[in-house]
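Appendix B. Extra example for self-study. Work through it before the problem class; the solution is given directly after the inputs so you can check yourself.
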Amino acid sequence: MNYQAILESIQSDLKDYKNTGKVATYIPELGKVDSSKFGLHLNCINGNHYHLGASQERFSIQSISKVLSLAFALKLERNKLWNRVDVEPSGDPFNSLVQLEYEKGIPRNPFINAGALVVSDMLMSHLKNPKEDFLQYVRDIAGDQSIDYDTSVAASEMQHKYRNAALAHLMKDFKNINNDVDALLDFYFHQCAIAMSCQQLAQAFSIFLNYSKQDQSQQALAVPPMIAKRINALMLTCGFYDESGEFAFRVGLPGKSGVGGGIVALHPKHYSIAVWSPPLNEKGNSELGMKVLELFTSKTEISVF
Amino acid sequence: MNYQAILESIQSDLKDYKNTGKVATYIPELGKVDSSKFGLHLNCINGNHYHLGASQERFSIQSISKVLSLAFALKLERNKLWNRVDVEPSGDPFNSLVQLEYEKGIPRNPFINAGALVVSDMLMSHLKNPKEDFLQYVRDIAGDQSIDYDTSVAASEMQHKYRNAALAHLMKDFKNINNDVDALLDFYFHQCAIAMSCQQLAQAFSIFLNYSKQDQSQQALAVPPMIAKRINALMLTCGFYDESGEFAFRVGLPGKSGVGGGIVALHPKHYSIAVWSPPLNEKGNSELGMKVLELFTSKTEISVF
Amino acid sequence: MNYQAILESIQSDLKDYKNTGKVATYIPELGKVDSSKFGLHLNCINGNHYHLGASQERFSIQSISKVLSLAFALKLERNKLWNRVDVEPSGDPFNSLVQLEYEKGIPRNPFINAGALVVSDMLMSHLKNPKEDFLQYVRDIAGDQSIDYDTSVAASEMQHKYRNAALAHLMKDFKNINNDVDALLDFYFHQCAIAMSCQQLAQAFSIFLNYSKQDQSQQALAVPPMIAKRINALMLTCGFYDESGEFAFRVGLPGKSGVGGGIVALHPKHYSIAVWSPPLNEKGNSELGMKVLELFTSKTEISVF
Amino acid sequence: MNYQAILESIQSDLKDYKNTGKVATYIPELGKVDSSKFGLHLNCINGNHYHLGASQERFSIQSISKVLSLAFALKLERNKLWNRVDVEPSGDPFNSLVQLEYEKGIPRNPFINAGALVVSDMLMSHLKNPKEDFLQYVRDIAGDQSIDYDTSVAASEMQHKYRNAALAHLMKDFKNINNDVDALLDFYFHQCAIAMSCQQLAQAFSIFLNYSKQDQSQQALAVPPMIAKRINALMLTCGFYDESGEFAFRVGLPGKSGVGGGIVALHPKHYSIAVWSPPLNEKGNSELGMKVLELFTSKTEISVF
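Solution. Structure tokens for the complete assembly:
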């Protein structure tokens, strides 16, 4: 597969693309980003790398962190987590309380905010220094010790915590949150506020690839296959809130988006790929990012389907 | 891969399995089936076949027909369909009216009843003899001209039509059904009442596999890859009602279940597989069928993830 | 109380009223009415009558009929009805299916469409000639044998039956409808299509007043006090769909509206009053009718509160 | 009316009553009450008083306080309140977040928890010392300066604040709460934790009666008639959560219940009445209290309907 040529052809196809998306502003700090930024990094299972644009520029990974915290939690405690969070698509926006009330405090899946709060709560209960330990985990899987929290973003999120505070309090009422709500929110907002580049994200998500025996030396940090299979399944069914079906339909890869405009996706047998473009469509996913990935799986004729 | 050994080991693992499921009885005709029936047929892309139990015995395919009617509709009209039905998981039971009201008569996806009724309505508008033409399509893709409607099941469904009649009338109120409701229901119930064996189903669903050039002689009826990709994505995200996430999580294949106890699943690069066991779990999917497929993808270590 | 002076003062206050409402058009036949029509009839418990405008002109009573069919059903069968329909405000639009699905086919109250369909179903099971017998009941309580169905309105409703057909089929699925759905809808649409004047409506609703002993000769048809109390309570809590609270808050009387622009209200110790003005507010209630009744209870300083 | 004889006959009718209700335990402090306690106080507009049982024993008034805080808020600011809270029955449990999310942070009415939190927020913005000032208002209208907060109940509620904290944070996210959430909850829980007897409650609620000119000397604190009408209407349509219709249907009076087992009701022209019995039915209203009031309006043949 000539990935370089395919990436260049996508770039060419989209050079006059009219982006109708809007940069997220509900957290003021996020609204400061330059909306024309674009980056892409493709990390192949055989060790090859390809990139476009600002692939090394860091941005706020936001909800993409939910996959990393899930992977970390499943390292620490493999089974009990699934008593506290379900594995079904929600069909609702990422921050809805409606299902949570009907379903008695059990979030639909770990990739909506409520589910990620439960995962964070479990991490807090296991870790001595949750923020430090989580950051170290991310640095290790991304292979870059310079990765860090953007504390101004974390502080901005804390100032606008109310919807997430409502979710956490509702789950605490249903006894599905064990730790102090404000400490939990502080930990959760820090996870969202990690700044990473496309290159770092693609590297980090390579832990979910199915390395064959000869490639395993490359990836000692890879998640055990049975766990990776499940996390990949969850990304495919739940990674894009109430647009998960659309992403599966158009792109056909497990993936996860964040309101910072990043999307990471992967084909378990071939590659992990990260793309970044801040303007979001009305469902909260990077408009251009989805378009690029749709072209990528169409042109390569490779998807999981 | 020694599929024969894997199938035998699954059979051995499950020989004392205590099935807690219940045969569907809401259509009386379906309740007459022997609950201990079991069949499986594996149809590999290279032309090999493997089977267990009553793999040639026919049963009511029920909602499995929704995938076949979608494939047929997309042959006739590729684009307009997606204006009338969405591609998102519903997160609700298969016959719910709630989302349909909130979303103004646009069903969440073509694999819940409301969505399949819209697909059927579109087929009716295109076909001269809907029932005859649809049956011929199924016979052709399954390669067996003896396949037929079980008219006693269709009649039994018509006598208990009320929930589906409510769905159809609600969508007609929203102008998303064009044909007469009773004629539409008659057509829809006939689709559900097709009787097929595991062998025939596995053959029919091979149209969604990604045949390589050298295999294409085997499968002239294969769906174009871009369409197959989308139908497979829909099966993965929406094929098991509000248990779609669970099936993706445990099994990791696109698939579709029916209340007759059948499940068809497929790996686009490897095989299609059909399994039949009538007792259903509380979500309406074959309990043993899901278990068998979970063991199958675990033992083969092959899934789309 | 000088009712004549109060009515005239209301007429004077509202002579330049800018009506922002819209005449109902979802049934084409209803859309033909002159939107400037206005009538009012006040029927006092002591036998005095007062009126304004076109108080003798007949219009389609629509949902106002739901109170009369409930009263008639409670004459025939006092207790079993409440197993099939609840007595709670719905908080939802008049034709919603959402609660009906969640609450397993038991309508919230007899004044939303679903509830009135159950009441009609019960009447059908008791009456030899439902349409003739119901019409006779209305003629008797209104004291006017010339009252009749507007069959062109009934036919128009039958042509646009889909939403109500969805409600009826859903309840039939839950076994809360016993009769044939199309026959039931025909009966129900005829009830809605009765044409009556404000004078006739005020007279008919006088059966819910608390006549003292000396006045009872006037009203042999009065509903027994324990039944009247309950029907009045239902009108107050449920008579105006999801605007029932607003009507109670602003007007403070039991009442019932119809999409033909009519409103009937009553004070059990003093009077029944009917007002008619076709333009409806966005909740489907006569905008001017509500305004007139608000002024009436404010100026008289009499309400049930 | 021989009220004394009627009260005695009710007591006699119910002496062998099997109460199937359960004392509220979700706030541990409330669970300590003796479930067999019973008290009743009837306060007639003409100055007569009647009572049964422990009518002077104080209990936690809980949600009954919502009517008093609304009355106090409407003294301070008559109009703006209705931009922030609606006047419709909710049809949902008292602490539901579902409607609040759909309706963008505007509570359905001031007598569900969310609505009372908005009223409390408005009081906090107007009052220098919210807790002291509110308590003084209650003491004044009840005519008893010994009324006080039960601080152990308030502290117990604060320890189990999570559901109410979720409601408050969700509304703050929708910008319908202005004050600090924890300070607001502290004020709100204190209101709920006022301890009053049936006698004191009946006296306090006499401010909502329609005193005639000759009786006005008795009640200088009476709420202006136009305000009392609206508060009474709200009590009738919304005073018993999702059982408001049932109370209107069976009892036929404006009223308000609390999970401490108290119910206050009133007939604007005749009396206010308070009854106390701790065991609650499944909707959270005093089972015996509702029964007593149903018998009272049946035997007196007086209700607002």
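Self-check: The mean pLDDT of chain D is 94. If your reasoning did not lead you there, revisit section 3.
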